[in-house]
Amino acid sequence: MVWVACVSSCASTGGGHASRVSAEALLEQAQAREVEAIRAQSSQAQAYAWLHCATLAHDAMAAEKAATETAAGLLATQCSRAFFDLMAQGAPIEVMAGRLSLGGVTIRVEFRGMPDSLARSVYLEPADQVSMDPLDGARHHHAGFGVPLVAFSLPCSDRPICRLYPPEGVFRPATLWLETPLAAVAHDDTPVLVVQNPVTQPEHVAGANRYTLAEDMSAPFAQLLERTRLKRLAWWGMIGGAEIGKRSGLFLLDDYDPNKTPIIMIHGLAGSPLIWARLSNAIMGDPELHRRYQIWHIVYQSNAPLLVERYRVQHYIDEAWHVLDPGSHAPARQGVVLIGHSMGGVIARLLCAQSTPDVWNAAFTAPMESLHADANDLATLKDVFQFKPYPGVDEIIFMAAPQRGSPSADGLLGRLVGLLAWRHIEEMAGLVRIVTENPKAIQPAVESIFQTGHLTSLTSLRPDEPVSLADEKLMPAAGVRYDTIAGVLPGVKPPGDGYVPLSSALFPGSATTLIVHSDHKVPNNPEAIAGVLKILREHGNSHDVVSSETP
């Protein structure tokens, strides 16, 4: 069977074909093809009928009558979906731009506004076939024209930005439909399968009519979560497993936009970005917030002392900016929001603080300049102990952050993990060499743990650890707003979430403080998520005011 386009007899929405048939007649023809598809005896006959139905209905979408316009859009979507499902047979379809044969039917694939993060070859899967279990059933989507899809490809390797994409792959929302070719390519009657980005191009124009595209923002994220191995790697990373270290860095959940404010999320001890699943989904599912913000996730190996972890996270952010904005001109560099859970909240505070001599003096009795050691080791030591507030950040949201340590870190499990973890901390190896060469320059209170190397993420969360006692006094720089969200469980003594006492999580000077009924996984709590969304709306609105007043 050969496809014959209605070049001379049909009205076309985008191609300007001579209109001899009314939109109402086109819709009737499309409805007749729908009946043919349902009754077809062969899959190929069914495929052509669905294809003909979709393109005829699409042509009818330019109707002047509202009733015809609406019915045509619904039928075009329905027939496009039926064609896709018939071709897919329950599996993702691999496509690339250009002519393509699907089940013996020739079509031309056209990508519109799809992001560069996707490879030339893309797998497509209907969004409603993606399980929402990783997001606890919370699907953020809206109805409209077209078939909402997940577009997936393996991450690229030919550009610096490729290393900022999750290694599991790139998952993006897409919307699909079928249409007849434009007048410019009228010599080619091959039907067009359109795959459009509903985020950057949320409308489709048919004649004088505008159709809002159907969109599912949660399905791509759910697919990413379904494929990740981070949960298992995170625990191994805390006790020295190397895989999470190889995976460490900053990763973009969205495509980079130089005009959107970054939200940088920093997980906690033995954690991973999985803790941010519900919150990230809620932000991306809120049209206002998704228009303002882009989400970046930090992955780090949580086995090192706090100051080392701060040094690592700063390095990951620096690397990302070097790739994304080497000229340092992007508006996105200003108004950055940090959200930190548990130890990640403490790291976020230290990222926005100015180091003091007290922090150095808690560990050393001599100035850095007097130490004898390898130049690289000394350079790392300087970066760890001497730092400035990270530029561009003006908001921190602390979630269950042990700002004054946690008694749990001093328990049996904490000590056991500490014994396992220390042997695998690269930065600590350099510190141990410095201590070995300068034994008289070390404070007695920390000499033994430096000499053994048993200073880890857990030991630095102990309430009595000397360096942490000094760095817990470091406050966010002037002009950085911070908000606190903490959890509390009934019957827990002292009051807290079972891991972080309320007295450690509550932070003086917070613009707002929210206490929710929750265990330590506060970012999963619906009330806490609502609290973050409220803070982000206020943050975004305040920046809109500032930008409108700035020449």
Automatic annotation (TrEMBL):
Record-annotated AB hydrolase-1 domain positions: 263-450
Domain of life: Bacteria
Annotated Pfam families: Abhydrolase_6
Name of the protein described by the UniProt record: AB hydrolase-1 domain-containing protein
